[in-house]
Amino acid sequence: MLKILFLCTGNSCRSQMAEGWTRHLKSREIEAYSAGTAPGGVDPLAIKAMREAGVDISGHKSKSVDDLPPDVQFDYVITLCGSARENCPFFPGAARKIHAGFEDPPLLARDATDEEEALKHYRRIRDEIRDFVADLPPSTVRAE
Fold this sequence. Notes:
Elements: E1 2-8, H1 14-26, E2 30-36, H2 44-52, E3 76-79, H3 82-86, E4 96-99, H4 105-108, H5 115-134
Parallel strand pairs: 1-2, 1-3, 3-4
């Protein structure tokens, strides 16, 4: 089974969505993990947007790379934001690094006047991540 780590800065939204979608859509092929370079808690609106799509990530925890099991050898490390791409730590073994950047829903929603307006951004990114995950494993994606 492939082991994929989704890496973002806060491990609060995009990487949590990617892990959730992968577990939901690809659990027979891929063992999914997520982490952040500076974790900050799972975003409640990410949980809500994913729940609307039938994926429950409410039990997920925001974690750093140091919190990952030390014995896991990742096949792929997929960075989901520019900061994580630039600050991606070294992973021993044969892990291929791939960047799949997605816009940051909290940043997009910062000027929203209410939760419904904010959720529009989360839903769009959620669906973009779903489409990306549906095409995994990334055998046709060029590693960095």
